[in-house]
What we know:
By secondary structure, chain A is of the alpha/beta class. Chain A contains 13 helices and seven strands. In chain A, helix 5 packs antiparallel against helix 6. Chain A is globular.
Amino acid sequence: MKMLPGCIPCLVKMAITTATIGGGNEEQIYQSARSALKILLEGNFQFPAPYFSAPILRKVETILNQPDPFIKQKRVSNQAGLKLAQELAKPYVEKAKNSKDRLLRSLRASIAGNIADYAVVPDLEGKIEDKLREAFKLKFSCLDFERFWKKLRGARRILYICDNAGEIAFDRILIEELSNFKKQVIVAVKSGPALNDALVSDALEVGLDKIAGVELITTGQAMMGLDLKSAGRELKRAFRDSDIILAKGQANFECLAGKNGKIFFLTLIKCQALENKLGLKKGSAIFASGDMLNAMFGNLK
Amino acid sequence: MKMLPGCIPCLVKMAITTATIGGGNEEQIYQSARSALKILLEGNFQFPAPYFSAPILRKVETILNQPDPFIKQKRVSNQAGLKLAQELAKPYVEKAKNSKDRLLRSLRASIAGNIADYAVVPDLEGKIEDKLREAFKLKFSCLDFERFWKKLRGARRILYICDNAGEIAFDRILIEELSNFKKQVIVAVKSGPALNDALVSDALEVGLDKIAGVELITTGQAMMGLDLKSAGRELKRAFRDSDIILAKGQANFECLAGKNGKIFFLTLIKCQALENKLGLKKGSAIFASGDMLNAMFGNLK
Lengths: 301, 301
């Protein structure tokens, strides 16, 4: 999906937030904003917004002399995520009456984790338990579960493209579930820092490597979402060889929503720009194939 | 007050909002965003954010070939403002038990009008009556009323610098009140379009010219807030010769907050950037002299 107009100021804001969270002084914060302005001014808006995160964040990291400004937040998110996933999401999934219901509950648990995105909602603390409980009950605005269920039966290999730290503790529940169906699950995280997106260190922290049948890889990229063309070899191979691709979070949605075929998206609508584009309210949940989305919303390329 | 970091993306957003409200097509909206990026990139952030509104809005107007993109919204705001001021604010003020209380109530009525800013909160319709009633009851976060009351006694001439269309219907109530104290009130509106800011046509629509003792002038500028250095001669003279200056709205606050002496600010805190800077919550109301503000918040230059 090409850059939406509303993404342009948001990317400038991202530079400022990152510089602030990374401990930048006033001068560094202004400089980070200027770098974002310059990169966007020179950029081609035919590309998805997350593509711009890579050059902007690299600039901010250089200005701060800090290779991973969100590193502390990610540790905190992972620990909070693990605790909440264990205490709230696990018991919710365990209540399922059969394996199909259990899978649907795991999808809800995973989407509940999508609200644990400190980069977007930094002041969730205190409210997060209530938010998670709400998320378990939410109605999907687009739900393509039957198609997924059907595809899953014949699938051998699933590529699961992760989103943020913290959230991956909830992804773990869904990934375990997929693995319980005797599927090979290839889990992709970023190869380098991109906001609070999960890296290998985060995947290890929440024990994604401990699940039977799981192979951990990286996208080969330090950007939000995924630029398939320039992705790493491992990711490209997994993308080609998997029977199902499960893309988590809004940035992956923005980058890949135009694709039909074996791809499914699991995300909340997190911003006004996408709300305007799709006509779905902020906070709406989507679990849908690219086919369904492109049929519903026209071509999302 | 110099540009806050958070104002930078907000000014890009302003260009997009203006292009959208002005009926721009997709290409014009992207072009408007790019113009804002360029102007900001080349800009000096030592100046207040509203200073950037002038060149950005001029560019957007040129791109749209539309000299006043908010013209329809302003008509609607004025009519809604007149109705609500008459039905809600007037009776609220009339309940006062003496002239001092009546003045304070007029100040509250005027600040209530500050929420009728469609550029910032475009979906207020339906909720606006409740919001206004709340506004009459609000506690000011900074209140310098006694100083104002004292100054008013000796004052002959007051300069009232207006903010938005719609809002000026509520300003009218306060301006009438000041005029009832037998003061000369010089009311300044913008000389050309700046978002939904009030122009002479708006002042006439709400009858500001009909009040005894009122002289209507323009700032000589088509920008949000006021750049005193490059303002028109009428404004400069009024600024110099008035005994009290009453600056309404956040943009005037941003431009003039560093000034001590005879100036008073009447505004709501409308954005996160200013909330962060002052440590006052979004929605907080201020009626305070520059002296009080600079004592409370350090130098706001």
